[in-house]
Every structure is written in structure tokens, then in C-alpha cells.
Automatic annotation (TrEMBL):
This is NAD(P)H-dependent oxidoreductase. Pfam families: FMN_red. The lineage of its organism: Bacteria, Bacillati, Bacillota, Bacilli, Lactobacillales. GO terms for molecular function: FMN binding; oxidoreductase activity. GO terms for cellular component: cytosol. Residues 3-147 form the NADPH-dependent FMN reductase-like domain.
Length: 181
């Protein structure tokens, strides 16, 4: 059984990123253990907290450490990832030398309401994951554009072709993760 942590870069209710994440999770094996890792309550990373970390940092770091593999789904904010997602990356990679992301296989999906599909956020995130020492599945690339046309009002993916594409990508990630662990 593989433990998959899911990090959703959007912290708004009914986000399209959550809908994409749910569609990915639907493709994972029935015996997979899925944990959605909450990032909305993490105080902004401050190196001063390395000595005496807030309980939210400790909880998040411990949850990340327990996962075998991580699925990241990010919106695009101003041609980059969201501040909440960047903060989560920083919190779990510190203090220096205690990076709990290291070695965990990663899958990146991005979404956008535009046709650009969050491609820039996707690549910004991938660059961070390289530094964080996370082997990242290269194919298929998961760029979901015009996501509002593929979803309902609650952000759930309703387009069957997109559901199938994401579920198949998750199956491939399961294989990739098992080879990497």
C-alpha cells in the first residue's frame, strides 16, 4: 500500500485545483492511502521559527514525512504558483538540512481558467521540486486549461475525457512512485 499525500495549491473553497486533485485520486489503487495535506493554516515561513516551530509547522512536516509520494495540483497566480503553495514548500524543507520532501516521488498538475493551462506555474513548481530532491514524473504533462468549462460550480471535474485522462495519469504515477520508493 502506497501512502499518497495531496497538496492543493489553491486554498479557496470549491477550487478547480481540488477538483483536479479529486479526479487524480480517483485513478489511484483502491488500497492506496490518501491524505490531503492542509496548507491553509500554515503561518508564513520565517527562519526565526526554525528554533521553536509553530505547531502547524510541526503537524505539516510530520504529515509530509509519513507520505511515500506527493501529488501537487497548482493554480497559476501571476505566472507562478500560489503564495500558499510556496509557503508549504518552504515550511517542510526547513530548518536547513531537515527537508522532509527529499526523495519523495512527485506528480505535478496545473490548471487555469485560461488556455495557457497554468503551464508557467507548473514549471516554476517543477524547478522547486528539483531543488527539494523530489523525483518528478515527466510524462504525461498535466496542464488543464479552460478548467471552468470542464467543471461544475463546486470545482469537480465533470468532463469525462478529462476525468479519464487524469485517472490514467494517476495510475501511471502509482507505477512511477513504486519504482522510486
Amino acid at each position: 500500500m502506497t501512502k499518497f499525500g495531496v497538496v492543493i495549491g489553491s486554498i479557496r473553497d470549491n477550487s478547480f485545483s481540488k477538483g483536479v486533485a479529486d479526479a487524480l485520486v480517483a485513478g489511484l489503487p483502491a488500497d492506496a492511502e490518501i491524505t490531503y495535506l492542509k496548507i491553509s493554516d500554515l503561518p508564513l515561513y520565517n527562519q526565526d521559527y526554525d528554533v521553536d516551530s509553530p505547531e502547524e509547522y510541526v503537524r505539516f512536516r510530520n504529515q509530509v514525512a509519513l507520505q511515500d509520494a506527493i501529488i501537487f495540483v497548482t493554480p497559476e497566480h501571476n505566472r507562478s504558483i500560489s503564495a500558499a503553495l510556496k509557503n508549504a514548500l518552504d515550511v517542510a524543507s526547513r530548518p536547513w538540512g531537515q527537508n522532509v520532501w527529499a526523495g519523495k516521488p512527485a506528480l505535478v498538475a496545473s490548471q487555469s481558467i485560461s488556455g495557457i493551462s497554468g503551464v508557467l506555474a507548473h514549471h516554476v513548481l517543477r524547478q522547486s521540486l528539483v531543488f527539494l530532491d523530489m523525483p518528478t514524473m515527466q510524462q504525461p504533462e498535466l496542464y488543464i486549461g479552460n478548467v471552468q468549462n470542464l467543471s461544475d460550480e463546486e470545482g469537480h471535474i465533470t468532463n469525462t475525457d478529462t476525468q479519464e485522462f487524469l485517472a490514467n495519469a494517476a495510475k501511471q504515477f502509482d507505477t512511477f512512485a513504486k519504482k522510486s520508493i
